[in-house]
Amino acid sequence: MTQVLPAFDPRLAPIVADEADALLLPAQAQRLTADGLRALFANPPAWTPELHREKKFADRAPAQAAVLIPLVMREELTLILTQRTAHLSTHSGQIALPGGKLDPDDADATAAALREAHEEIGLPPERVEVLGTLPIYVTGTSFIVTPVVGLVQPGFELVPNPHEVDDVFEVPLAYLMNPLHHRRHSHAFEGVVREWYSMPYLDGDRERFIWGATAGMLRNFYRMLSA
To answer: Whole-angstrom Cα distance, residue 66 to residue 46?
Structure first.
């Protein structure tokens, strides 16, 4: 998740064409269901994450963190995402998965992801069926992130924390797991070329520009689902 720098709009960064990406197929439909995901995590395929680590661009100590990939079991699975508030010290205003740094009292990354999702958006932990985790993803701001995948029973009422979250919305998982909606960007800043994925989503008349670490972890999820 590349930090937003002054006068920098990630939407305007050049898109890099990739012939190999043009040949990729959407994730298998049977895996985009609750039962399909349960079976997948119970017996994971052999696969390799595409993205591991972003180029460092912030001088800060590394910190363990976790995010929740909360998939709501509606007629089709949807992913809950947040819009971060503009005043936060890192990744302000960006679209994110609910999550944050591990606290000393957290038993593990899963406990941290569930706690953070409850604190940020009011998602009750008891409504989440944890399936497993994805490989660690290291952001350019030195967060060592464990993505935790969970199925969410519908019927909840979210209450976003106004100090951290401006908005909460859902995106169909099938949309995000279709590589036709993945764009790879490249941008040179201070002599360093940085690359990242974006997955723009039109939510009514509003574009939700999903990019950076969030898009990177979802790209890895796509790689697992399509293995």
So the answer is: 23
Instruction: Return the SS3 of 14.
Output: coil
The domain segmentation of the chain, as residue ranges, is 10-225
Query: pLDDT of 141-165, one tens digit each?
Result: 899 999 999 999 999 999 999 988 9
On the question of pLDDT at 216 being above 80, the answer is: yes
pLDDT at 55 over 90: no
Sign of CA dihedral 92, 95, 96, 97: positive
Measured over all CA atoms, what is the biggest interatomic distance in the chain, rounded to whole angstroms?
49
pLDDT band, residue 21 (cuts 50/70/90): confident
Domain covering 10-225, topology = Nucleoside Triphosphate Pyrophosphohydrolase (3.90.79)
Whether 197 contacts 10, CB under 8 Å: no
- Classify the phi-psi angles of 191: left when phi > 0, otherwise alpha if psi is within -120 to 50, otherwise beta: left
Enumerate residues 6+ apart whose C-beta is below 8 A from 114: 68, 125, 128, 130, 148, 150
